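lol ok so funny story. i was supposed to be doing the assay writeup but got distracted and ended up predicting the structure for this chain instead. priorities right. anyway since i did it might as well share w the group, maybe its usefull for someone
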Amino acid sequence: MTLKERIEMARDQARGMAATLDAVLLALDNGHAGVQGPCEHPPEQRIPAARMGRPQAWVCRCGVEG
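and the output, tada:
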């Protein structure tokens, strides 16, 4: 793996983490902290949050992960 590929991978992981944290902050603002059930929002509200082993993972703006 080249240095460029490692940097790109680290950047992608950071984007996923940022998306997760944004969703958590939004959930806290909306009073939904700690509530995690099935998300019924449209897919347009989902933020890609790829993780190791789950490249297609996402986080809804309401805080639900999928």
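The two ends are 29 Å apart (CA to CA). The longest helix spans residues 3-29.
back to the writeup now i swear
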